[in-house]
Design goal:
Length: 249
């Protein structure tokens, strides 16, 4: 479904050139819950931003069903973005708007039929278990509830893929569990392919059938989660699993 091929992303800042991703290749299949795990600064968010077309690669391609995302513009780009929902770590909710208005926002922005937008919004609030909070404001919600609003909003255009950047890293373990269960339900019931960026091995273990381990801008290991975790080959995977402690030599 998603093919990442020879993807390299470099940034130029005051201190010079930074290579955030170096010649990355990955295949994400339809229906996968795909975990991308690595330490801080490894390039995870940059990868997600390249997938969601928020960032343009320096070289290499990302395709969705064979279409190169970074060659699209105008209406084609808008249509493609509707096929991919994005969930951010910091929720990115509109604080001056109610839960219902937040979820409806992408559809209202696209000029959707108001009655249909209202129907779809109620359906999504039901799905994420927040019907009772429809008229509350984000400031009145817990972190887990805010993330549920963000997930509902990301699903409003009925995307085929949900791209999640550290969706649970600001949440406690019990709330994390319930948000992960929601994502798994969305994958199973709505057949949405899910890509989860995380630095927590527990998140991958809980819901990802596939995993790729990223270390210093490159993938060091990828495949079936159970197989990789049963016999980790790379040092980074073993570290993440807690087999080795970091040492400086
Ligand atoms: N806009 C930018 N300009 C310059 N450098 C950047 C930019 N965005 C990212 N980088 C650099 O690219 C590298 C990868 O950053 P990225 O945010 O992708 O890491 P990450 O794996 O998501 O880390 P974290 O777990 O802390 O979120 C870092 O060295 C970062 O400083
Ligand atoms: Mg990040």
């Amino acid at each position: 479904m998603i093919e990442i091929s020879h993807l390299t992303k470099k940034f130029n800042d005051k201190s010079g050139e930074v290579t955030a991703l170096h010649d990355v290749n990955l295949s994400i299949g339809r229906g996968d819950v795909f975990g991308i795990i690595g330490m801080s600064g490894a390039g995870k968010s940059t990868l997600l931003r390249c997938l969601s077309t928020l960032e343009t690669p320096t070289s290499g391609t990302v395709t969705l069903d064979g279409v190169n995302l970074h060659t699209l513009s105008g209406n084609d780009l808008i249509q493609m973005r509707r096929r991919m929902g994005v969930v951010f770590q910091g929720y990115n909710l509109l604080m001056q708007r109610t839960v219902r208005q937040n979820v409806a926002f992408p559809l209202s922005l696209a000029g959707g039929d108001p009655a249909e937008t209202a129907r779809r919004t109620s359906e999504l609030l039901e799905l994420v278990g927040l019907s009772a909070k429809a008229d509350s404001y984000p400031s009145q919600l817990s972190g887990g509830q805010k993330q549920r609003v963000a997930i509902a909003r990301a699903l409003s255009t009925s995307p085929e893929v949900l791209l999640c950047d550290e969706p649970t890293s600001a949440l406690d373990s019990l709330t994390t569990k319930s948000v992960l269960e929601l994502l798994r339900d969305i994958n199973r019931k709505l057949n949405v392919t899910i890509v989860i960026i995380t630095h927590e091995i527990a998140v991958v273990k809980a819901i990802c059938n596939k995993v790729a381990v990223i270390d210093a801008s490159e993938f060091v290991e990828w495949g079936d989660t159970q197989e990789i975790f049963a016999a980790p080959k790379s040092r980074m995977t073993r570290q993440l699993l807690g087999y080795e402690v970091m040492n400086d030599d």
